[in-house]
C-alpha cells in the first residue's frame, strides 16, 4: 500500500501541489474593492408619497455602482481584464471595517431620504420643518490626527466657536484651512459636552481623481429631524449611500404635482441633495453613465461642476463620449433646475417609448 501511495505521489505530486496553490489563491482575500456599473432602477416603486399619484408614462431612474470586495486573486484578475475600477479597501471604505461601513452607507441613505423630502416639499411650497443638530462621527481614517481624540458617535456642533449644523457646513469650513492647523471642536459625547483640539490633515481624493483637500480625516453624517404633514415612505432594499437624493426629490415632486414630469421619457440621474435643493457631487459617476445608457435612458442628470475640485460633469461627459451614449448629459446645480428641464421636454408619443 505504501509503495502504491509513493508511486502515486511521485507521478502526481506536481498536480497536487499546483491544485493546493490554486486553492490557497482562491481563499486568500486581497485588500481591494472592484467598482463597476450597477443598475438603473425605477424610483416610482421605491417612493410612496401620501396623497400623491403614481401615473408616470415614462420613468425616473436612480443609478447605482456595483462594489465587490476582492476575495481572491482570481477576482482581481477579473477586474483587470474587464477594466473595472480597483481601489484599496481602506480608501473604498473610508478606513472602516465592513460592518461599520455598511452602517455608514445606511445612515447616508436615510439622510438623503430626509433631505429629499425637505427639498421637494420646500420646492412645492408645502410646510416642512427640519432641525439639524450637528454632525455625527461615523468613522476615523487610519491616518487621521483625530485618532484617540474623537470617538465614533461624537456629535460635532461647532468649529472654533462657530456653530455647525450639518455636514456641508463642516466640510466648507474645514477645507478652507491648511493641513497642520488645529481647530477647536465643540463635541457632544453622550451626555457630556467637550471642547477638543484636533490637527487637520491633507486628504487624498476619494477616487484617486479628486484634488487633495484639508480635513479632519473623519467620516460624518448630519444629525437631523424632519417634521412634515406629508408622509413619504421609501423601500430602498440594499441600496446605500447618499447619491440617490436628487432622483428621490424629483419623484416626490412628480407624485405631488399635477401632470407627469417624465412626459413619457426615460430620465436617469445621480447626485446628493441638501435641504435647500442644492445638488452635490458623488462618486462613481462614470459607472452610472454606463448603467443609465444600458437601461435606455434619454437624459442623465449629473451634478454640475461648480467648484475647481468638482469633476462629476466632466467625468460624465467623458464617459458618455467613450461609450458612444445616445442620451443627453444634463448638469444641474439644484432641484429647481432639474424640474425646469423636465417641464421643457415635449410630450413623447406612447408608440415611440423605448
UniProtKB/TrEMBL annotation:
<keyword id="KW-0812">Transmembrane</keyword>
<dbReference type="InterPro" id="IPR008269">
    <property type="entry name" value="Lon_proteolytic"/>
</dbReference>
<dbReference type="InterPro" id="IPR014721">
    <property type="entry name" value="Ribsml_uS5_D2-typ_fold_subgr"/>
</dbReference>
<feature type="active site">
    <location>
        <position position="243"/>
    </location>
</feature>
<dbReference type="InterPro" id="IPR020568">
    <property type="entry name" value="Ribosomal_Su5_D2-typ_SF"/>
</dbReference>
<protein>
    <recommendedName>
        <fullName>endopeptidase La</fullName>
        <ecNumber>3.4.21.53</ecNumber>
    </recommendedName>
</protein>
<dbReference type="InterPro" id="IPR036034">
    <property type="entry name" value="PDZ_sf"/>
</dbReference>
<dbReference type="GO" id="GO:0004176">
    <property type="term" value="F:ATP-dependent peptidase activity"/>
</dbReference>
<dbReference type="GO" id="GO:0004252">
    <property type="term" value="F:serine-type endopeptidase activity"/>
</dbReference>
<keyword id="KW-0378">Hydrolase</keyword>
<dbReference type="InterPro" id="IPR001478">
    <property type="entry name" value="PDZ"/>
</dbReference>
<feature type="active site">
    <location>
        <position position="288"/>
    </location>
</feature>
<dbReference type="Pfam" id="PF05362">
    <property type="entry name" value="Lon_C"/>
</dbReference>
<feature type="domain" description="PDZ">
    <location>
        <begin position="102"/>
        <end position="191"/>
    </location>
</feature>
<keyword id="KW-1133">Transmembrane helix</keyword>
<keyword id="KW-0472">Membrane</keyword>
<feature type="transmembrane region" description="Helical">
    <location>
        <begin position="12"/>
        <end position="35"/>
    </location>
</feature>
<dbReference type="GO" id="GO:0030163">
    <property type="term" value="P:protein catabolic process"/>
</dbReference>
<dbReference type="InterPro" id="IPR027065">
    <property type="entry name" value="Lon_Prtase"/>
</dbReference>
<dbReference type="Pfam" id="PF13180">
    <property type="entry name" value="PDZ_2"/>
</dbReference>
<comment type="similarity">
    <text>Belongs to the peptidase S16 family.</text>
</comment>
<dbReference type="GO" id="GO:0006508">
    <property type="term" value="P:proteolysis"/>
</dbReference>
<keyword id="KW-0645">Protease</keyword>
<dbReference type="GO" id="GO:0005524">
    <property type="term" value="F:ATP binding"/>
</dbReference>
<keyword id="KW-0720">Serine protease</keyword>
<feature type="domain" description="Lon proteolytic">
    <location>
        <begin position="238"/>
        <end position="345"/>
    </location>
</feature>
